[in-house]
Amino acid sequence: MKSISCKLIILDETGSACAKDISGNLPEVFLSREHHSWSKPIIKAVKEKYGLDIKILRTLSETQSTRTQSCELPTKSLSTSDLIWDTLDSEGGNIDSLQDANVARSTPWTQPGWNSEAESWVSQALFELDISQIGRLIQHRVWSVSYVAYTETNAGRIWFKASPTHFATETAVSHWMSSKFPKSSPRVIAWNQTRNWMLMKSFGARQWDESIKQKSVGPYLKTLAQLQRRSSLYKGDLTNIGLPIKYPSLITKFIDFIGENPAEFQGMVSTKIMNQISSVLPELEKDAYALKSSIIPIGLEHGDLDAGNVFIQCNNPIFTDWSDSSISHPFYTLASFWGTKINLDVITSYYLDEWSDYGSPKQLLNEYKSVGRTAATFRSASYLKLKDKYPSSSWWELAPYLLQMLRLIPSKRPIYEIKHS
Which domains does the chain have, with CATH numbers? Predict the structure, then answer.
């Protein structure tokens, strides 16, 4: 795996000074090229080279070979390293990014001092639950989508998650899921809805991936369908939580937007891909309008189900990460599943069979196929809608996912059937 040079803007807890070497250069470490949100490789590399225990704040920029990372040193001392404190003013072009007010409002963990507040809340919440904490909060993943960390306790590993303002409902819907569907959701043991923080009991380490045989997938799909069917009875709860109703107008409005504003997509996809998208819009529009007369009641739609956020615990699926969830056609959750291929006969026998009260096997299959043909369009429309809420200087982190979905639109197939990077 190729390495990447990572420049570090290490701030003190007040955010008024940054660490540099005696020549005035930023500290630098070399990392294997993994997704920038994974915290441990950076933390380990800085500890090994400089002897410092940093906290990740934000990835400011990244190219194929370089990355600029802002970090925090909770203790003022640089004594274990050859670095010295310098004024932040000397950092020039990075200051605007470091002090972006929109980023600070949306993802407050990018600011020095936030980590200490989060650690204090976690410690107090565990104390009130009579759970003994062993060690500090360890960062796991940090980016504009979420802040995830964990701590070991006498009750096992406890996960902490903070969500940004553009995913303002995640904590509330996760807490609701924990209450209504405890066998299929992480157990939320403490939460702060105002700050969008929550603590969850460990849900295991085994993910739904290629190692799970097709014959084992069926019961997981059955559980998902049962959860979604029951959720349609709680639309009032979900609306009160604040979940948006995305269906059925989301796709039709997106198709109209593409037709009326093709220039908006210049630079996102090539002219060839854009022409392919334009050529299939009439068929997609036909499916979208047909789905307006759906036989399936709208309910909880996950929004981003993939092999990385379904865990298997005691042979039961645990569905995590409800940040993108909405009230919509439930079939989009499965048709947009990302990560492993699922056989249609398994879907028919286990997932669609759970909806048999609403139509014949043929009707259900036809509706599922219509959803599958529009799955990438639905996801593209969701990402584009999310872009309006995102801080512009952080959008680069999510832009590749929109780009990938746009490229998949012409295939008109469920996402799990398509080979993609």
Answer: 3-99 (3.90.79.10), 109-201 (3.30.200.20), 214-417 (3.90.1200)
